[in-house]
Automatic annotation (TrEMBL):
PROSITE patterns: MFS (PS50850), SUGAR_TRANSPORT_1 (PS00216). This is Solute carrier family 22 member 2. Its main location: membrane. GO terms for cellular component: basolateral plasma membrane. The chain crosses the membrane at residues 21-44, 150-170, 177-197, 203-224, 236-257, 263-282, 349-373, 379-397, 404-423, 464-488, 494-513. InterPro entries: MFS_dom (IPR020846), MFS_sugar_transport-like (IPR005828), MFS_trans_sf (IPR036259), Orgcat_transp/SVOP (IPR004749), Sugar_transporter_CS (IPR005829). GO terms for molecular function: xenobiotic transmembrane transporter activity. CDD domains: MFS_SLC22A1_2_3 (cd17379). Residues 100-518 form the Major facilitator superfamily (MFS) profile domain. It is found in: Basal cell membrane; Basolateral cell membrane. Belongs to the major facilitator (TC 2.A.1) superfamily. Organic cation transporter (TC 2.A.1.19) family. Gene3D superfamilies: MFS general substrate transporter like domains.
């Protein structure tokens, strides 16, 4: 009996239907970006200092500029190098006193400036920002700064839990149903978050988004990989990833135009409701239907694909092992991911690779954010470097294969992190060049693992395998802020050294995986076990 890949060779491996499906799913990929990295803008922490009664009136009377006011009235003020005291403490003095001098206000009140008592911010904070963010609206600074970390941790925790549950649902009940359910829940929770009345409700709705959004994105990834033939799988998956990179640029433009977080959240969420139209635009995966012994439905989908490609399915290809249709349908199980030796090896290596990709990808962005700069330009530059990475992979993966470019990209990312850490600040151009090469290398790793992960699992286990392995990416996202911000307090470049070690280890491990260039997707456990032969 012919396989689905044999049939696709007859009706089109990447013709009009597949290109149309890829376009629809790329739109989904674009809208996932704000959920994955949206905290960069939604939770932006501007420069801030304590509000003190009478300080504004005194500044107006003395004709101070903003910087002069801060230098005179804020403890240990140093702009972007401000200390905890300057942000979270205030002088316990009465600025309404008429005897205060404009040239030395503290000196006119006390003889020794260092003896002026400091107290907590009882009247709120003044933020140096033209818009609003979660930080400015809910005052997530000083003693409450941990709440912003909790907000981002809830998103990644949602990714982690959702990866397990959504993966099982997609393999048990179908790709299309899973995609539509996650789209609806993501859209509804995103809109509710934009109108959330308190910090607590904001965290709850963001957690729900995390639970369903990544699972939906990866389900779309698996769906397009199962629609196209093996010769075009690489191109389709890289384009799907490039759509995510395009989302980074669109998000930057929207954040610049809409500096208020509620309007930004609403704007990036509403387009998701249009994806419910995919009920009529996209069929179920024929590979999943075949794996579930639903051969008649699979033939209907195959005929639909042939019609979309303006081709006719030959009569000799219209039977798909119908005698086994009533046999036992394989059901996905977490045990299957570690039960057999080769799949077990694949699972552990892929889990570490997902963890590495997440830690380096998010860590390099966070480390760049430690230094003062224009957040819009910094984010834009880091997004633009992802497009050359996609072009390099388009040119190499089908010529060289998956493993060697993957290993080389890990080594490049790790070595670039090490160079960035060791190069002195005086050679700024070399430091930034190395940082960009590191970002390019880890972007290539991300795109390759998204391509290879579905290729190493049989059809009935594929979605579960992808989402369970990629859950390590979410675990990496949870701990990365602590790696960056806490270790940077010991030595500013220490996180980069850790990233280098993690990346270089991954570069060696991926060479232990089988090469998938030109191979058909495995349909059974036996197929997956024999991939290394």
């Amino acid at each position: 009996m012919p396989t689905l890949d044999d049939i696709l060779e007859q009706i089109g491996e990447f013709d009009f239907f597949q290109k149309q499906a890829l376009f629809f799913l790329c739109l989904l990929s674009v809208t996932f970006t704000p959920i994955y990295v949206g905290i960069f803008f939604l939770g932006f922490t501007p420069e801030h200092h304590c509000r003190s009664p009478g300080m504004a009136e005194l500044s107006q009377r003395c004709g101070w500029s903003l910087e002069e006011q801060l230098n005179h009235t804020v403890p240990e003020w140093g702009g972007h190098e401000a200390s905890f005291n300057s942000r979270c403490r205030r002088y316990e003095v009465d600025w309404n006193t008429t005897a205060i001098s404009c040239t030395d206000p503290l000196g006119s009140l006390v003889a020794n400036r260092s003896t002026v008592p400091l107290g907590p911010c009882r009247d709120g904070w003044v933020y140096d920002s033209p818009g609003t963010s979660l930080v400015t609206e809910f005052n997530l600074v000083c003693e409450d700064s941990w709440k912003l970390d909790l907000f981002q941790s809830c998103v990644n925790a949602g990714f982690f839990i959702g990866s397990m549950s959504i993966g099982y649902i997609a393999d048990r009940f179908g790709r299309k149903l899973c995609l539509l359910v996650t789209v609806f829940l993501n859209s509804a929770s995103g809109v509710l978050m934009a109108f959330a009345p308190s910090y607590t409700w904001t965290v709850i709705f963001r957690l729900i988004q995390g639970l369903v959004s990544k699972g939906g994105w990866l389900t779309g990834y698996v769906l397009i990989a199962e629609f196209v033939g093996s010769n075009y799988r690489r191109a389709a998956c890289i384009i799907y990833q490039a759509a995510f990179s395009l989302g980074l640029i669109i998000l930057t433009a929207l954040a610049y135009a809409l500096p208020h977080w509620r309007w930004l959240q609403l704007t990036v969420t509403l387009p998701n409701f249009f994806f419910l139209l995919y009920y009529w635009c996209l069929p179920e995966s024929p590979r999943w239907l075949i794996a579930q012994k639903q051969n008649e439905k699979a033939i209907e989908v195959i005929k639909h694909i042939a019609k979309g490609n303006k081709k006719k399915l030959p009569l000799s290809f219209q039977n798909l092992n119908s005698e086994d249709e009533d046999g036992e349908k394989p059901k996905p199980s977490f045990v299957d991911l570690v039960r057999t030796p080769q799949i077990r090896k694949h699972t552990f290596i892929l889990m570490y690779s997902w963890f590495t990709s997440s830690v380096l990808y998010q860590g390099l962005i966070m480390h760049m954010g430690i230094a003062a700069g224009n957040m819009y330009l910094d984010f834009l530059y880091s997004a633009l470097v992802e497009f050359p990475a996609a072009i390099i992979l388009m040119l190499t993966l089908d010529r060289i294969g998956r493993r060697y470019p993957w290993a080389a990209a890990n080594v490049m990312a790790g070595a670039a992190c090490l160079v960035t850490a060791l190069v002195p600040d005086t050679l700024y151009w070399l430091k930034m060049t190395a940082a960009c090469l590191g970002r390019m290398g880890i972007t290539m790793c991300y795109e390759i693992i998204c391509l290879v992960n579905p290729e190493l699992y049989p059809t009935f286990l594929r979605n579960l395998g992808v989402l369970v392995c990629s859950s390590m990416c979410d675990l990496g996202g949870i701990i990365t802020p602590f790696l960056v911000y806490r270790l940077a307090e010991l030595w500013h470049e220490l996180p980069l050294v850790i990233f280098a070690v993690i990346g270089l280890i991954d570069g060696g491990l991926v060479l232990l995986l089988p090469e998938m260039k030109g191979k058909t997707l495995p349909e059974t456990i036996e197929d997956a076990e024999n991939l290394h032969r």
